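Input sequence (251 aa), recorded before submission:
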Amino acid sequence: MSRIYLSKRAKDFIDAADDNGNIRNDRASLLYINAIDNACKITGLTTGAVYPFAGSDSNSRAINFLNPAEYSIEWHGTVNHSALGIQSDGSTGYGNTNFIPNNFGDNIYLGVYVTAQNNTQSTIRYIGTSNDASGAGGAYMNGTLSIRTGRANSSQTMSLSTTIRTGYSSIFRVSGTTYYSLNNQIGSTNTAVVKSTYPITILAVNSGSSGIQIMGMDTVGFAMIGYDITVNQNLYFQHLITAAQRAYRGV
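Predicted structure, token format:
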């Protein structure tokens, strides 16, 4: 069996995330972490937060791959952990990344890889933050930065004409333009920038004083928060993460 050569960054992540050998002693997990590391290196992503959701428990899946000392996820309520990733119970479970967009520039990036659709709710929110009570979908739409689907009404997803299925989706801004990738397609739209002062949450949208909006029970196998990412970087990163997820999780 061939050896797996890991970078210092990958080793640092494993040291922080491993729980009783659930990553270190699992060859498939090591190959997956190596693939995540290569995706970040090839596309030049060094800042922000990358959550591989490797391992099998809440401790392992809280750690930020890019820097284990920053933006560890604080889990709240009931979040289920399976081979496919993380899943809210639909009413209490979510994760707080403590990443506040207002502390960074305008070009915030959000990405998720959905591994399973577990219900048919018209609105599913995977990751985001908002300055208003409505938590309207989109990137900076009405003060909101989020990825969500609108299965019953596609207009709920800003101008995204198709709904998110299993796979990688992202939404981000570059030089005043909002871009989205959805089902391996990329598009753009113009929306006003109102940066949120509330932390980004996973499996929910943080609507600040109006509370956490948890909608849906889909399973997420990967999440990322970044900034200053170009369109080409996004496309390449999406391709590499998709390959890594399919090799590791089979979806």
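Checked by second reader. The radius of gyration is 17 Å.
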